[in-house]
């Protein structure tokens, strides 16, 4: 057992998100391309003899058992029967409920960290099952990098990418519900076949960022008409000449990709009058990382 572990948990964007149909269980079958970014939360885990306890000073992040980190730690404890406890403190940098996967990334880190903290050795299938139960994005963060996600996002195919491009993330001060965005598409149970051709995508990713990138986000079909300020933000980003500009997940973060840091900084300056929070990030080839302390 370890006394203390520190985790770094990355953000993600969706380079592509197609909604294929709504399943009979209410979830939506999707096809998406995840890209991990070097924008991190930091979580400190300490072993205790008491209960699982989560703290976070960021408004909007619960400090009770509804927190995904608490749920993840409790899930591991219930599955293994371990009696140890944990004190979990989250330092947030990834915006909350912004379409960047911060909560899911934190949950993935917890699944890995408490195992090491409590001296456990769960097999990969067990961890993947728990990750999927916690949320559709959680499995991706166990490995990160760039991956094609199918099913509800949990069926992952790792992809190789150039690691190029500079991402400008713009997050207006608002919250959007992913459930509302999916429901707003009103797709019903009509099935659409997958559209991503793996060989084509692999070739395009090897040259990313590319002005011919074919990805889009189907959730924007609902989000942009119902939130015109996000549509205007998207148009503003397109006007800065990026290789790509898209909504991430269900938003509200809208991002653009540039070839150089200079282009990204110039675009950031042009957007400064909006007052929106902006962050610059780069693609990474890993998921959550753990450090013994």
Q: Give, in order, the helices and strands.
A: EEEHEHHHEEEHHHHEEHEE
Instruction: Estimate the strand proportion.
Output: 25-35%
Quick one: overall form?
Answer: globular
Alpha carbon gyration radius: 19 Å
Secondary structure tally: strands: 11
Helicity level:
25-40%
Could you give a short account of the major beta sheet?
Answer: 7 strands, mixed
Could you walk me through the main structural features you see in this protein, from its secondary elements to its overall organization?
By secondary structure, the protein is α+β, with helices and mostly antiparallel strands. It has two domains: 4-158 and 285-292, Ribosomal Protein S5, domain 2 (2-Layer Sandwich); 161-281, Alpha-Beta Plaits. Helix content is 31%, strand content 29%. The protein has nine helices and eleven strands. The strands form two sheets. Strands 1, 2, 3, 4, 5, 6 and 11 form a seven-stranded mixed β-sheet that branches. A four-stranded antiparallel β-sheet has the order 8-9-7-10, with helices on one face. Helix 7 (220-226) packs across helix 8. The relative contact order is 0.21.
Summarize the structure.
The protein is 31% helix and 29% strand. By secondary structure, it is of the alpha+beta class. The strands form two sheets. Strands 1, 2, 3, 4, 5, 6 and 11 form a seven-stranded mixed sheet that branches. A four-stranded antiparallel sheet has the order 8-9-7-10, with helices on one face.
């Amino acid at each position: 057992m370890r006394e203390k572990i520190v985790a770094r948990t990355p953000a993600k964007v969706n380079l592509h998100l197609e909604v294929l149909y709504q399943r009979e269980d209410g979830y939506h079958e999707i096809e998406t391309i995840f890209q991990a970014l070097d924008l991190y939360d930091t979580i400190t885990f300490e072993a205790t003899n008491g209960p699982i306890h989560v703290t976070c000073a960021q408004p909007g992040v619960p400090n009770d058992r509804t927190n995904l980190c608490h749920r993840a730690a409790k899930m591991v404890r219930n599955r293994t029967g371990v009696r140890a406890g944990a004190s979990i403190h989250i330092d947030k940098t990834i915006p909350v409920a912004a379409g960047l996967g911060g909560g899911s990334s934190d949950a993935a880190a917890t699944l890995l960290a408490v195992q090491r903290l409590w001296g456990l050795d769960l097999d990969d299938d067990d961890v993947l099952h728990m990750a999927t139960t916690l949320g559709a994005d959680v499995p991706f963060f166990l490995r990160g990098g760039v991956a094609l996600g199918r099913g509800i996002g949990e069926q992952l195919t790792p992809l190789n990418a150039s690691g190029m491009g500079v991402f400008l993330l713009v997050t207006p001060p608002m919250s959007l519900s992913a459930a509302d965005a999916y429901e707003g598409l009103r797709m019903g149970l009509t099935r659409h076949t997958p559209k991503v051709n793996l060989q084509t995508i692999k070739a395009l990713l090897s040259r990313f960022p590319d002005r011919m990138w074919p990805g889009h986000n189907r959730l924007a079909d609902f989000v942009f008409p119902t939130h015109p300020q996000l549509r205007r933000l998207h148009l503003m980003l397109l006007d800065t000449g990026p290789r790509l500009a898209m909504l991430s997940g269900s938003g509200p973060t809208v991002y653009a990709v540039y070839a150089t840091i200079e282009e990204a900084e110039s675009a950031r300056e042009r957007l400064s009058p909006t007052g929106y929070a902006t962050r610059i990030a780069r693609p990474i080839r890993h998921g959550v990382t753990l450090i013994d302390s």
